[in-house]
Design goal:
This protein is mostly beta strands and 257 residues long. It contains 4 helices and 13 strands. A hairpin with a 5-residue loop joins strand 9 (173-179) and strand 10. Residues 1-26 have low confidence and may be disordered.
Length: 257
């Protein structure tokens, strides 16, 4: 299963529920509550930690980038590249509306301007906004229930997210298919401000991680580029662990391992 005000990962890289919803509870949810529940399921209500491997596929080559990420609510995020060796140690920090990147090979700290949020992260089809969670699928969009459809035999809510006029976001709209029982985002389509499909994301290989049923394989496919995709494999996730705000510092992004 889009990735700064507040944000995730990704569109799909955003979803979860701590309570086991019964049918009556699920039926009473508003479209915004469906999106909030799905978003929180994936990233945690307060904090989150993840280990992932991202394979970038192109017509004539492919490569894999491994990384760890820490996040606190919507305002703090720190991502550390752990492989391949030539890029190991690079890190990315978000504090509020400010973002930086650290490259140890040139010993340089760079502040990332908002204009860079739409650029591909580490050469992938994910954007800097997806990884650093600048925008918020809950706060920056209006939500409408478009109906119900099944994805791989999972009954899903089909919810449309339309960017608010004042929101500074990459996507004009999104459509999410959210599993009605587990509140997992199994599919997402992201559109530009003119309504053209830019990319699709699908989530699969559901497993229990830190007590939550989650997709561990997410495939992102650009709409207009043949033979190109990015596959994200989730290796580990933890939720609501203790992380102080002081963890998200420029000093720590240079020394974190």
């Amino acid at each position: 299963m889009t990735i700064v005000k507040k944000k995730v990962p990704f569109s799909i890289i955003a979803s979860i529920l701590l309570i086991n919803s019964g049918g009556l509870f699920a039926q009473s949810l508003t479209p915004t509550e469906i999106i909030r529940t799905a978003d929180e399921k994936f990233k945690g209500e307060q904090t989150g930690y993840s280990v992932m491997a991202m394979t970038i596929v192109r017509p004539s080559w492919q490569r894999t980038v491994e990384f760890k990420s820490w996040a606190k609510e919507n305002d703090y995020a720190l991502t550390l590249v752990t492989a391949p060796a030539r890029e190991k140690g690079q890190s990315f920090l978000k504090r509020g509306n400010e973002m930086w990147s650290w490259n140890p090979s040139i010993n340089r700290l760079i502040k990332l301007p908002p204009s860079m949020m739409s650029q591909g992260w580490m050469g992938s089809d994910y954007t800097n906004d997806d990884i650093l969670r600048e925008s918020s699928v809950v706060d920056d969009y209006n939500h409408t229930l478009e109906g119900e459809e099944s994805i791989d035999e999972h009954p899903c809510y089909k919810v449309k997210l339309t960017a608010k006029p004042e929101a500074d976001v990459l996507w004009g709209s999104q459509i999410w298919w959210v599993d009605k029982k587990e509140f997992i985002t199994l599919r997402a389509e992201l559109y530009d401000e003119d309504g053209y499909l830019v990319r699709s994301e699908t989530a699969s290989d559901l497993k229990i991680m830190d007590g939550r049923l989650l997709p561990t394989l997410i495939e992102l496919v650009p709409a207009d580029t043949e033979g190109q995709k990015t596959v994200l494999k989730i290796l580990e996730m933890k939720f609501n662990i203790k992380i102080d705000e002081s963890f998200f510092s420029q000093q720590n992004m240079k020394t974190i391992r």
